[in-house]
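Hi R.,

Here's the chain you asked about this morning:
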Amino acid sequence: NRVDIARNYILSGVQQWPEQALEDIMMTALITDKVEFCRLLLENGIYMQKFLTIHRLEELYNT
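And here is the predicted structure, written out as tokens:
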């Protein structure tokens, strides 16, 4: 729930996060309605056109 911590420590640029890890975090943020986390991830390397596959769209719809 702390976007400021994520911005300052997790996505600080010190560590390169695997794409799958960021996609998993994005999926969780979407499911739990964490708009600020979604925005932060979109600003830091998640490309919605690549992220939103048919499978993920179905999963989000069914959640």
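One quick note: The CA atoms of residues 9 and 15 lie 9 Å apart.

Cheers,
M.
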